[in-house]
Amino acid sequence: MAKEPVRVLVTGAAGQIGYALVPMIARGIMLGADQPVILHMLDIPPAAEALNGVKMELVDAAFPLLKGVVATTDVVEACTGVNVAVMVGGFPRKEGMERKDVMSKNASIYKSQASALELHAAQNCKVLVVANPANTNALILKEFAPSIPAKNITCLTRLDHNRALGQISERLNVQVSDVKNVIIWGNHSSTQYPDVNHATAVGKPVRELVKDDEWLNGEFITTVQQRGAAIIKARKLSSALSAASAACDHIRDWVLGTPEGTWVSMGVYSDGSYNVPAGVIYSFPVTCKNGEWTIVQGLAIDEFSRKKLDLTGAELTEEKELAYSCLS
Ligand code: NAD
Ligand code: LMR
């Protein structure tokens, strides 16, 4: 028997990530090749015409799994009945704007969209925040949607995780699918810590294969940390296809489970595991089963890593305070 359609919200759907993401969802890349979907696309009034154009293209693409499209600038209509919410919409940093101004704009967007999701989304809706500052936007959403379980609100660090896999695969000249268990700790920002201490390639420890700790502790880390900026420099636009693909990976693994023996990185509400700050959205290694994530416990953290986990944790605490000061 055919499955019931799943309703997937994409905010900021007329933007560049949205344009790459909605066809992936409609093709079954996010939820599986046998899972029908109804897309809910939200954008703001100045983008309404472009949003309608995206809807027209979705119709023209005749995706067999796509059972309906809601394209709207009304946040309540967009959120009603959604089972998965991918929050890509946000206010970009413009010339001359201070960090606090960007935080202030986004904190108020995420506060109001939190209320709409809380009141109108389906029970047990899973939320993924992509828009920057992703961890802190997700935290605001969690704080202002108190009846949505904290475990249902996450942010995207899978792009950073995939970037780390890509760098190791290139360095070792192995298939990217043979590289496993890298970790992104902390914030989706340049303080994130891409950690290979537990990673393997073709079943062997990455450190043993690379045989170059100077590269692994230096250039590898900065390349992953700065990759978003490098893409902007090259494209004059921020990453879009890789971000959309990572958003699909994040939701697919969360809903359908991670393969045995493999973990992925997700920004989740911190319980203080690994002595990082509790009460912020922090990226951890997680495994997923039956639609729930669990932080991988018991990994050894050396002195070098400890400092990096603490540094990115301190930045998230500072962002949290800044976001709250903007809302008060
Ligand atoms: P974009 O500017 O092309 O698109 C953003 C869209 O959001 C626009 O269509 C805009 O009209 C819309 N929007 C603005 N305010 C909104 C609101 N209140 N409600 C609904 N929609 C709204 O940007 P993009 O390149 O698609 O990137 C989107 C976001 O994702 C940015 O914040 C970017 O920094 C972030 N990003 C995150 C990651 C990650 O790994 N977490 C990676 C890449 C980009
Ligand atoms: C990315 O990692 O590619 C983006 O978060 C960069 C950005 O600033 O939008």
UniProtKB/TrEMBL annotation:
UniProt-listed CDD domains: MDH_cytoplasmic_cytosolic
Keyword flag NAD: yes
Keyword NAD: yes
GO BP term (any one): tricarboxylic acid cycle
Catalytic residues (positions): H188
Residue positions binding NAD(+): G12, A13, A14, G15, Q16, I17, G18, D43, N106, V130, A131, N132
Superkingdom: Eukaryota
Domain Lactate/malate dehydrogenase N-terminal residues, every copy: 6-153
Residue stretches making up the Lactate/malate dehydrogenase C-terminal domain: 157-323
Record: residues binding substrate: R93, R99, N132, R163
Keywords (A to Z) from UniProt: NAD, Oxidoreductase, Tricarboxylic acid cycle
GO molecular function, one term: L-malate dehydrogenase (NAD+) activity
Any single Pfam family the record assigns to this protein: Ldh_1_N
Catalytic activity reported: (S)-malate + NAD(+) = oxaloacetate + NADH + H(+)
SUPFAM superfamilies in the cross-refs: LDH C-terminal domain-like, NAD(P)-binding Rossmann-fold domains
EC number of this enzyme: 1.1.1.37
Similarity field: Belongs to the LDH/MDH superfamily. MDH type 2 family.
Protein name in the entry: Malate dehydrogenase
